[in-house]
Design a protein that fits this description.
This protein has 16 helices and five strands. By secondary structure, it is α/β, with parallel strands linked by helices. A five-stranded parallel sheet has the order 2-3-4-1-5. 37% of the residues are buried. The site of zinc ion has 9 residues, from helix 3.
Length: 346
């Protein structure tokens, strides 16, 4: 078996391998969504349980590895959100999985799953080896979930490692972070990420990778709440490029459709980030194919209202899973964008 993760994960995988020599009771693996945080955490969890780990990971041959692969290892507890459970029907497969939720499941980690950890952790190891709890996405825990988890982190049972994987380190409670050994998944090098996209049939890997913000695994994003169709992206782009010329009618007419709020906010953030860059005479990061349109929209724009709008979008991103009226929220938020596109006063 050996290293069973994507090539750009080799460096953090080596760090984890060192940690395996003297296992901490809690490890927090963090990086941006789409760089393989979950895949790395799953590989690490597997290697902790393996009876004869080889360089880079689990052996794939021993009895423990077989149980892990079958999903029946008694000393392993997976704590995933319903959305991630569907996205990873075979948690140990590094290759793309096929399942996805059509209607969009909850992205939060259910409180019962955290509460039931107490029972799991109070018993001893079934197979006499290490025990592992894998939690993802650890940033999707509400206050109740976090405090229930904290109890387990405060008094970790011997021989147990809690592996937390998060797409957003800033969203983690400091009290949880401080009890974990932190491992960062760095930005995938461009060449490796583009190569990966090319191998997976992407015709224009440069601009696709840019539109993904450098995160190659967004190609396989399975969470429908985090994904926009090309049609919807085209509609949004068309509206956003109108800047302050956008009318209420255009917004209500074009956006009388269901759009997942988290994906919408992420899209807006990327576009506004590009627009801000362009006002400063910098190259755009995400919408490279639309660079010339964005540059012409950015002419003489006042950057301050855009920066204020961007921070509002960031706040909104943290609340995007709350059951707001998505359609109305989206329409209002686009109109607010339009009002933030303001020429510098002469
Ligand atoms: Zn093994």
């Amino acid at each position: 078996m050996g290293l069973d993760v994507y090539p750009w994960l080799k460096a953090p995988a080596l760090m984890l391998e060192k940690l395996r020599q003297k296992l901490p009771s809690a490890v927090l693996i963090y990086g941006q969504r789409g760089c393989g945080v979950y895949e790395l955490a799953a590989s690490f969890a597997r290697s902790i349980l393996c009876e004869h780990p080889v360089q880079g990971g689990a052996c794939g041959q021993c009895a423990s590895c077989k149980l892990t692969e079958a999903g029946t290892h008694p000393d392993l507890r997976l704590v995933l959100s319903p959305a991630e459970e569907v996205a990873h029907p075979q948690p140990w497969a590094v290759t793309k999985t096929t399942s996805e939720s059509k209607k969009g499941l909850s992205r939060q980690i259910p409180i019962e799953k955290i509460r039931s950890l107490g029972e799991f952790l109070s018993t001893t190891s079934h197979r006499g080896g290490n025990r592992v709890v894998l939690i993802y996405p650890a940033n999707m825990m509400l206050a109740d979930q976090s405090s229930a988890l904290l109890k387990n982190l405060e008094e970790p049972p011997a021989g147990t490692t809690i592996v937390l994987a998060t797409d957003d380190l800033d969203a983690m409670l400091p009290t949880i972070r401080s009890r974990c050994q932190l491992v960062r998944v760095p930005f995938p090098p461009k060449a490796q990420a583009q190569q990966f996209l090319r191998e997976n049939g992407v015709k224009d890997p440069e601009s696709t990778l840019a539109s993904f913000g450098g995160m190659p695994l967004l190609l396989f994003e399975k969470d429908v709440k985090l994904r926009l169709s090309e049609d919807v992206e085209a509609i949004l782009l068309d509206l956003l490029l109108k800047g302050n010329q956008l009318t209420h009618f255009q917004v209500f007419d074009a956006l009388n459709i269901e759009i997942p709020l988290p994906a919408f906010i992420a899209y807006i953030q990327r576009f506004v980030c590009d627009l801000i860059y362009a006002t400063q005479g910098l190259a755009v990061r995400y919408n490279v194919k639309k660079q010339s349109e964005i540059i012409s929209l950015a002419q003489n724009l006042d950057v301050k209202p855009l920066l204020a709008y961007w921070s509002e979008a960031e706040k909104m991103a943290r609340m995007a899973d709350h059951p707001l009226n998505a359609k109305l929220t989206i329409q209002t938020f686009i109109l607010k964008y339009s009002a933030s596109v303001v020429k510098k006063s002469a």
